[in-house]
Design goal:
The protein folds into two domains: 239 residues, Aspartate Aminotransferase, domain 2; 86 residues, Aspartate Aminotransferase, domain 1. The chain is an alpha/beta fold. Bound molecules: pyridoxal-5'-phosphate (PLP).
Length: 348
C-alpha cells in the first residue's frame, strides 16, 4: 500500500489526530496468534483489572468502539422507558449524537441552558417540580460532560454537589468522559477523585481523542446497574469481536501514565494557543481555557480566509465562534506557524 496524502496538522479536532506510537506498538504486539473473541482474552482480562486499579474494586469496565455508542448504552442501563436524562443543551448526547439515545433507547433528553456548559443542582431542581404525574417523563439521570463541550472542567466539589443532589432526589449521575484525561490533567487529581469517589454512577471513558486508535469504555461504579449490561452492549451493536486490540490499547494507555502525559501536553498546547491568540487584535477568547479546546470569537468576514489558511470548524456561525482544538501530537511549532497566519488575516 502506498502512503496517501493527508491534511496538514491543524486545530480542527482531536479526532483528526493520528495514533500514539506506543498504542500502535501495543496493537502490533497483541497480534500474536489466536485469542478467544468478544472479550474472553487475556488482554481484556488484564485491562478490566487495570480499570479496577484506577477507579476502585467496584469499577466494572466494558469496552466499546465509539463514544456515541458508549453514551447510549451506558445511559440505557440507567433508565426505564419512561425516565429521562437531564443534560446541558450543549451536551454531545443532546446536540451531536443525531438523537441516538432517543432512537436506540427511546428515552427523552431534557436540555438545560448554561453559560459555561456546566449543570448545577439549581438548574435541575425546577424540572423535578413540574407535577404532570404520569403525563410526563421522570427526570432520572443527570448527565454531565467532563470536560464540557465548551472546554470547561467541573471541579471535584461541583461533581460531588451534583451527585449529592442526585442521590437526595432519587436520581443517578452519568459522566460523558470522552476527554476525561484532559479534565484530570487540568484538575491535577486522580481520575477517581471526580468520578467513583465523587458519586458518579456510570462513566463513559474515552481514549480515542487522546492518542488511542479506537477505544472507549462504559464504567459502572454501581454494580446493580451493570447486571445484564452485556446484553445491552451486544443488542446495540457495541460488542467488539476482536476486543483484544482495544484492550491492548488500554494497557499501553495506562502504562507509565501515557494517558496523562498526552492530556497534559494537549492542555499545555491549548494554553499556548490561547495566550498567543489573545495578543491578536479582533480575537476574543469566549470560555475559560481549561482543557484542550480554545473557543474564539472571530470577525465574521475574516472566517473564510482563516479557514483557507488552516481548516477549523465553526462552533456557532451566527456568533462567529470557532473551536480550536489541540491534541497529544500538537507541537509548539504548529502554534507558531498558525498564529502569524491568523494575525496576517485579522490585522492585515
Ligand atoms: C463530549 C463528546 N462525547 C462523545 C463523543 C462521541 O464520540 P464518537 O464520535 O466516537 O461517537 C464526542 C465526539 O467528539 C464528544 O466530543
Amino acid at each position: 500500500m502506498k502512503t496517501l496524502k493527508t491534511m496538514k496538522r491543524s486545530f480542527a479536532s482531536d479526532n483528526n489526530a493520528g495514533v500514539h506510537p506506543k498504542i500502535l506498538d501495543a496493537i502490533i504486539k497483541a497480534n500474536n496468534g489466536d485469542c478467544i473473541a468478544y472479550g474472553e482474552d487475556p488482554y481484556t482480562k488484564e485491562a478490566e483489572k487495570k480499570f479496577k486499579e484506577v477507579f476502585g474494586e467496584n469499577a466494572e469496565a466494558f469496552f466499546t468502539p465509539t463514544g456515541t455508542g458508549t453514551n447510549v448504552i451506558g445511559l440505557s442501563a440507567m433508565l426505564k422507558p419512561y425516565e429521562a436524562v437531564v443534560s446541558a443543551e450543549t451536551a454531545h448526547i443532546y446536540a451531536d449524537e443525531c438523537g441516538a439515545l432517543e432512537r436506540v433507547a427511546g428515552n427523552k433528553i431534557l436540555p438545560l441552558k448554561t453559560t459555561d456548559g456546566k449543570l448545577t443542582p439549581e438548574m435541575v431542581a425546577p424540572l423535578l417540580k413540574e407535577g404532570h404525574g404520569e403525563h410526563a417523563v421522570i427526570p432520572k439521570v443527570i448527565s454531565i460532560t467532563q470536560p464540557t463541550e465548551l472546554g470547561t472542567v467541573y471541579t471535584v466539589s461541583e461533581v460531588k454537589t451534583l451527585a449529592e443532589f442526585a442521590k437526595k432526589n432519587n436520581m443517578l449521575v452519568h459522566m460523558d468522559g470522552a476527554r476525561i484525561a484532559n479534565a484530570a490533567a487540568h484538575l491535577g487529581v486522580p481520575l477517581r477523585a471526580f468520578t467513583s469517589d465523587a458519586g458518579v454512577d456510570v462513566l463513559s471513558f474515552g481514549g480515542t481523542k487522546n492518542g488511542m486508535m479506537e477505544g472507549e469504555a462504559v464504567v459502572f461504579f454501581d454494580n446493580t446497574l451493570s447486571k445484564n449490561f452485556k446484553f445491552i452492549r451486544k443488542q446495540s451493536g457495541q460488542l467488539i469481536s476482536k476486543m483484544r486490540f482495544v484492550s491492548a490499547q488500554f494497557l499501553a494507555y495506562f502504562e507509565n501514565d501515557l494517558w496523562l502525559r498526552n492530556a497534559k501536553h494537549a492542555n499545555e498546547m491549548a494554553q499556548l494557543l490561547a495566550s498567543e491568540a489573545k495578543k491578536i487584535k479582533g480575537i476574543e477568547i469566549v470560555y475559560p481555557v481549561e482543557a484542550n479546546a480554545v473557543f474564539v470569537k472571530l470577525p465574521k468576514e475574516k472566517i473564510k480566509a482563516l479557514q483557507e489558511k488552516s481548516f477549523f470548524y465553526m462552533w456557532s456561525e451566527d456568533s462567529g465562534i470557532a473551536r480550536w482544538m489541540t491534541h497529544f501530537a500538537t507541537t509548539e511549532e504548529d502554534v507558531f506557524e498558525f498564529i502569524p497566519n491568523v494575525r496576517k488575516v485579522l490585522e492585515g
